[in-house]
Write a structure and sequence with these properties.
Blueprint: H1 2-20, E1 24-32, E2 46-53, E3 62-67, H2 72-78, E4 85-87, E5 102-104, H3 107-118, H4 129-143, H5 149-172, H6 180-191, H7 193-197, H8 210-226, H9 232-250, H10 255-265, H11 275-279
Parallel strand pairs: 1-4, 4-5
Antiparallel strand pairs: 1-2, 2-3
Length: 291
């Protein structure tokens, strides 16, 4: 698999290049384990970083990257050259991103924290005020999921912006920050305030980063089967195969046929093949019926 991944690597690279040229991206990361990595113990945490296009992209792509750390330097590295808008969670490592990248947040992360804070009383009384505002936002968002970016932007300004204002007014009206889970939920929201508010300005992005979390889940499900990678080379091979497979699926290709075609044709290219030649093998460019 490691040897086969070497042939797919140029396509993996071109998918990354393609994403960096887009104006809207989503990102996340998840734990991973590599048991034989020089200078590290088997139980030390490693990470798979995920970058993907926004859901309305005409040429959707998903990119996975292995790193032995969750350092913000990794985020800085994989987003190098990108100058658009990225939707991510509140992890502080993303503070390392270049200043010309615009960050937006995820209301699902905020909702999750408030839900956990109130879950002990949800069955005994009306929906708590802040959770009610967020649930209403998502209810309205579902109505416009299929609309164009411009239509979603206009809808948010009219229908959702007032709910966002009410949500922050409720928080600003607190005289004392509650302790425990509710206090942590409020503090998380406050820390993400500017990034959450920016979603009102970009109809191209969803109200949550759940699409990226689903891309992460693909790796988590696989991890339950293969458990770990023995070496960094194996971990990287996994990211290469997963990038190619998930991007093929996002573009509606027959995954087996696409992989078979790549592994038949790519080894025949010369060592000095150009990036332009490899771009012909991207899911939205390839002709699977050609000889």
């Amino acid at each position: 698999m490691i040897q086969a991944a070497k042939y797919l690597r140029p396509v993996w690279d071109q998918i990354h290049v393609h994403l960096l040229q887009l104006h809207f991206l989503q990102g996340d990361e998840t734990l991973y384990q590599v048991i034989c990595e020089p200078g590290r113990k088997a139980e030390q945490k490693s990470y798979i970083w995920v970058m993907r296009s926004a859901h309305q992209s005409r040429e959707p792509a998903v990119y996975y990257h292995y790193a032995p750390t969750r350092s913000g330097e990794v985020a800085k590295e994989i987003y190098a050259g990108f100058d658009g808008v990225v939707q991510i969670d509140g992890y502080s490592g993303y503070n390392k991103l270049a200043s010309d990248i615009t960050r937006t947040g995820c209301w699902a992360h905020v909702r999750r924290k408030f839900f956990d804070a109130f879950k002990g009383v949800l069955d005994h009384q009306a929906i708590p005020i802040p959770l009610g505002y967020i649930d209403r936002m998502f209810y309205l968002e579902r109505k416009v999921k299929a609309m164009t970016a411009e239509q979603r932007h206009q809808f948010r300004q009219i229908q959702i912006a007032p709910l966002v204002t009410k949500f922050w007014r409720w928080i600003d009206g607190l005289t004392i920050l509650p302790k425990g889970a509710l206090g942590r939920a409020i503090q998380y929201a406050l820390n993400q305030r500017q990034y959450l508010n920016r979603l009102l300005d970009y109809g191209e992005l969803d109200w949550s980063n759940n699409a990226t979390e689903r891309s992460v889940k693909r790796f988590v499900m696989g991890r339950k089967n293969w458990l770990f990678s023995t070496s960094p080379q194996g971990a990287e091979a996994n990211t290469i195969f997963m990038t190619v497979i998930e991007t093929a699926k996002a573009n509606g290709l027959d995954v087996f046929k696409y992989l078979k075609t790549l592994l038949e044709r790519l080894p025949q290219l010369p060592d000095f093949a150009t990036s332009h030649q490899y771009q012909a093998y991207l899911p939205w460019n390839i002709d699977l019926e050609a000889d």
